[in-house]
Structure formats: structure tokens, C-alpha cells
């Protein structure tokens, strides 16, 4: 089913369109909303694990978790409301379930439309910008591994990768080529800038590009197109991946040159934090500069780590600042191909 609604929404041209899902996307949105109110977050809806997966199985609705995280990141509401919507039950049949997910599920039942549920929740929280499901069709992802085995379902893919240590070769959408939401296509076509990631490469970013019409809309768009590489590799998806390995995977599932600029963190993760991540099978991403140079992709390296958290994540304000510089073409002094050992000459925020 393809749908477009009018209550509480108005199409906005010239937005920054961000494409992805998961924690990485919501972190970036917290920084961007301080810089502009013209934001459209395009979010994957193929998750089948955790509380979202349970609601999907029990109620037949699309997974609300990543959508909820993006709405909360863009929200402008009282702290008690934020606390309520992020509250996670700790006992009983609702143990592990987030109230915000239940809120979207209830709105879905009342309105009869997942997209309307997203729109009305966005209105209640007075969000900056828009949150758009990439599609409203019931979709799953299937991965083919290097050993020839295919596994369907996001949560099963991650478990299989960890169990058999076989690299992900490619992913595809089930059913193939689901229809994109009209409003999502419109946002991409009219964007000023399109940002891919950050987020889980194979389960948050790439799935959006497998929805019918998305890649074509990106190619038609005259927007600036930027990929934000993750800070760390991810156990179960991208072990040993370099920065360009991430880029290559996106191109293989969409098309060469779908973006021409890549932003990468070059700030070292502290020893203690690095050791903790190593126990989880994750490490800092190596920046293979020569491959970017050969591909003709602008490589912008900056110290983008959030130093106020015990997690290896982007600082939302630093990342937003870098993206706005790209948008406005203010790249004077940036080291675009790593010629200064990966350090930005200026604008290090």
C-alpha cells in the first residue's frame, strides 16, 4: 500500500534528507535540529527483533523502534513526556517493551495507517522536521553469506554471522522492490542535501536503498550527497571493514557514485573504551585513503567523537557542523583526500 496524507503535514522543499535508522541516525538528528528545521529523516522498517519485533509479530504493524528514536531525537516537548515515551517496562507481559512503541501501535490501530500514526505522534511531540518511513509495506531483509547460505530476518542475520563467522556478501528485500512512500520520494527529489548513515550498514542504511524508487530519486535529485561513516566496526555486520569497504558495500547495493563525499572520524578512541569494544568484536574503522583517492570521492576527516559519553559515538554538534559546512560549500582548508595524515586543516570544531 502506498499512501500520502495531509493532516499535520506539509511538503517541504530544500530539506536535509537523512537516510538510515538505528542509534546513529538519531544521534545525528539531535545535532542537526539545532542548525535547521528543514530536516526529513527517512527510516528503514525492516527490523524484526526486540520490542519492535514482538509488536510486529503480535499486531502485524511495521516495527516502530527506529521511527520512535528519530521522533524523540527531533522532539521539542516537556521532559516528563520524553521520559514517558522512552520508558521501558521491566516486568510482566510488557517486560522489555517501550511505551513509545505502544503509543505508535495504538495510533496505528486508531487511524488504520502506520504513516498517519507516525505523523500524529510527530505532531504531539512538536518535532523539528519530519520522520518518514521509507515504505509502508511489510518488508524483511535476507542476507547471502560468503559460504552461500541465505538467512532471512534482521535478527537472524546477525546471529548467523556471529555463529558461523561468514561475511555478508549481499542483502535483498523481501518482497523485492517494495513501493516507496510518495512523501519519501518527494523529499529526496527536492532535497538540498542527502546524508547516508551513520548506522548499521547492512540493516539500517542499505535496506532503504533496496526500496523501489529510492535510488532513482536520489540519482534525479540535484542535492549534495554525503556518506557518514560509522565510528566503529560492528560485530555481526562489518568486522574488519575499512572506511572504503563501507562505501563499496553501499555502491554495490545501489550504484557507483550515488554520493561523492564521505565524512570520517579520525579521532582516536581511548584505550579503555577501545578495549571494551574489542571484547564485543568491534574496533575503530581504518581509513584507507588511497582507495578514496582512486575512486575520486572527497574524504573529509575530522575529530568527531563525543567526549562526553562512555560510548564510541559521533558528537551530534560536531557532526552537524561538518554537514552544514558541506551543505554551504564551506570546505576551504579541509583535507579532502587525507594528504595531511587525515587531519582537517581548520574547522575542527
Summarize this entry quickly.
The chain has 349 residues and is of the alpha/beta class. Helices cover 40% and strands 14% of the residues.
Labels describing this entry:
40% helix, 349 residues, disordered N terminus, single chain, alpha/beta, seven-stranded parallel beta sheet, disordered C terminus
Task: Give structural notes.
There is one protein chain. The chain has 349 residues and is α/β, with parallel strands linked by helices. The chain has a domain at 140-174. Helix content is 40%, strand content 14%. It has 14 helices and ten strands. It has helices spanning 22-32, 50-59, 65-74, 79-86, 99-111, 114-124, 154-164, 182-189, 201-209, 214-220, 243-253, 271-279, 289-295, 316-328; strands spanning 16-20, 39-43, 130-133, 140-145, 150-152, 168-174, 193-196, 224-228, 261-265, 298-302. The strands form two sheets. A seven-stranded parallel β-sheet has the order 3-2-1-7-8-9-10, with helices on both faces. The longest helix has 13 residues, at 99-111. It is globular, with a radius of gyration of 19 Å. The model is unreliable at 1-10 and 340-349 (pLDDT under 50).
| Global shape | globular
Q: Care to count the β-strands? A: 10
- Individual helix count: 14
Low-confidence stretches: 1-10, 340-349
Radius of gyration, CA atoms, in whole angstroms: 19 Å
Average pLDDT score: 90
The secondary-structure element order is: EHEHHHHHEEEHEHEHHEHEHHEH
Strand content: 5-15%
For the largest sheet, list the strands in their spatial order.
3-2-1-7-8-9-10
Distance between the termini: 45 Å
User: Which range best describes the helical content: under 10%, 10-25%, 25-40%, 40-55%, 55-70% or over 70%?
Assistant: 25-40%
Q: Sheet bearing the most strands, described?
A: 7 strands, parallel
SS class: alpha/beta
Amino acid at each position: 500500500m502506498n499512501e500520502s496524507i495531509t493532516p499535520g503535514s506539509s511538503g517541504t522543499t530544500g530539506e536535509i534528507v537523512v537516510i538510515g535508522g538505528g542509534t546513529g541516525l538519531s544521534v545525528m538528528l539531535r545535532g542537526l535540529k539545532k542548525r535547521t528545521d528543514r530536516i526529513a529523516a527517512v527510516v528503514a522498517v525492516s527490523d524484526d527483533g526486540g520490542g519492535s519485533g514482538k509488536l510486529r509479530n503480535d499486531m502485524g504493524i511495521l516495527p516502530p523502534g527506529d521511527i520512535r528514536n528519530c521522533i524523540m531525537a527531533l522532539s521539542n516537548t516537556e521532559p516528563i513526556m520524553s521520559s514517558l515515551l522512552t520508558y521501558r517496562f521491566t516486568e510482566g507481559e510488557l517486560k522489555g517493551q517501550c511505551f513509545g512503541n505502544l503509543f505508535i501501535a495504538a495510533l496505528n490501530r486508531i487511524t488504520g495507517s502506520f504513516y498517519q500514526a507516525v505523523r500524529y505522534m510527530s505532531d504531539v511531540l512538536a518535532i523539528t522536521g519530519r520522520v518518514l518511513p521509507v515504505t509502508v509495506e511489510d518488508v524483511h531483509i535476507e542476507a547471502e553469506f560468503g559460504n552461500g547460505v541465505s538467512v532471512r530476518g534482521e535478527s537472524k542475520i546477525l546471529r548467523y554471522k556471529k555463529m558461523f563467522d561468514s561475511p555478508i556478501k549481499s542483502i535483498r528485500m523481501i518482497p523485492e522492490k517494495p513501493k516507496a512512500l510518495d512523501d519519501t520520494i518527494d523529499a529526496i527529489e527536492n532535497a538540498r542535501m542527502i546524508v547516508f548513515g551513520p548506522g548499521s550498514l547492512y540493516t539500517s542504511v542499505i535496506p532503504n536503498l533496496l526500496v523501489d524508487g529510492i535510488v532513482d530519486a536520489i540519482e534525479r535529485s540535484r542535492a549534495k550527497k554525503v556518506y557518514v561513516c560509522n565510528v566503529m566496526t560492528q560485530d555481526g555486520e562489518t568486522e574488519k571493514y575499512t572506511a572504503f569497504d563501507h562505501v563499496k558495500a553501499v555502491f554495490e547495493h545501489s550504484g557507483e557514485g550515488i554520493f561523492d563525499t564521505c565524512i570520517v572520524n579520525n579521532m582516536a578512541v581511548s584505550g579503555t573504551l577501545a578495549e571494551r569494544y574489542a571484547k564485543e568484536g568491534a574496533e575503530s574503522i581504518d581509513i584507507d585513503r588511497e582507495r578514496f583517492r582512486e575512486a575520486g570521492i572527497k574524504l573529509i576527516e575530522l575529530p568527531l567523537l563525543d567526549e562526553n559519553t562512555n560510548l564510541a559515538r559521533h558528537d551530534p554538534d560536531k557532526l552537524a557542523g561538518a554537514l552544514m559546512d558541506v551543505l554551504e560549500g564551506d570546505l576551504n582548508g579541509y583535507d579532502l583526500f587525507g594528504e595531511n595524515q587525515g587531519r582537517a586543516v581548520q574547522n575542527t570544531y
